[in-house]
Amino acid sequence: MMRKVHLISVTEPIILDLALAIREKGYDVTVSGTGISDTAFIKLSESGCACYGDGWFPERLTKDIYTVVLGANVEQNNPELVRAKELGLLIQSVPEFIYQRTRSKTRVVVAGSRGKKTIISMMVSALKQQKLAFDYALTSEVPLLPSRVHLSYESRIALVEGDEHVTSVLDQHGQLEFYRPHIAVLTNLSWSDKTGHATSEDYLGTYQAFTTSIEREGKLIYYSADSAVTRLAEEVRTDITAIPYDSHQVIEKDGQVFLSTRYGDFPVYIPDTYFLINLNAARLACRQLGVKDTDFYKALSEYSLSLQL
């Protein structure tokens, strides 16, 4: 019998993609939301996800629902959330649900204020070239991937984009605190009121909780030029291996830039200031997943040169 899952707030892009992903995995999926586009309705209908119209339909919730997944923007007085509580249903945030679906996998979580999408794109290009299957749950759209979420039974790797924003109206913890990575990548820290944290101390506390949540014998790959990140790396548990990274070296020959490596020189296109920094983060994370540096460089060279087209 298929497990029933109901997702509230399908107008949030990750909720829509999560609904489609778990439907493909075999769940009985229902969704709801306000302001749902015609395109989203078509996608839901074609995939077999049930949507009863635009708006909230608390009367449709039943006690046989396995879990209710709550979007980050759902308010406390949402009628479906109220009904789910009345029925005593299991209510989970997106990060909680993703963690439960990836518990048996090696979780790689990329977090920080800058560069997450680029690092993930680089990792995806290398993993794909090595034909390594992976699941993923991302807040960004990565051009190399068809959606923000993919879940499977077969892959042993899960790639997650960590977000410091509050999980849901029911839990004021940061979203990235729930994933419990085996491999954590931390780029830099830059607090502003847009992060959803009242103070810089609260913001830093979220990342302290993130580094504390790393699984035993895990890895923390961190940007060594950021003083706040470095302090966090120095404070991790003794069972965690902290691996620093900085900008990758390049050389120029005949008007072409090359990555300078022990395996030779690889042509590269550098689209922005942080590209070579992000590259090293992705390389070290891929190395932990069994991708040899030389294979990573080949994939990265092809990926970067394609950005010129």
Automatic annotation (TrEMBL):
Pfam families (alphabetical): Mur_ligase_M (PF08245)
The UniProt record lists the keyword Ligase: yes
A GO molecular-function annotation: ATP binding
Cited PANTHER family: UDP-N-ACETYLMURAMATE--L-ALANINE LIGASE, UDP-N-ACETYLMURAMATE--L-ALANINE LIGASE-RELATED
Protein name: UDP-N-acetylmuramate: L-alanyl-gamma-D-glutamyl-meso-diaminopimelate ligase
Organism of this sequence: Parabacteroides chinchillae
Keywords: Ligase
Top-level taxon of origin: Bacteria
Domain Mur ligase central as annotated: residue spans: 110-241
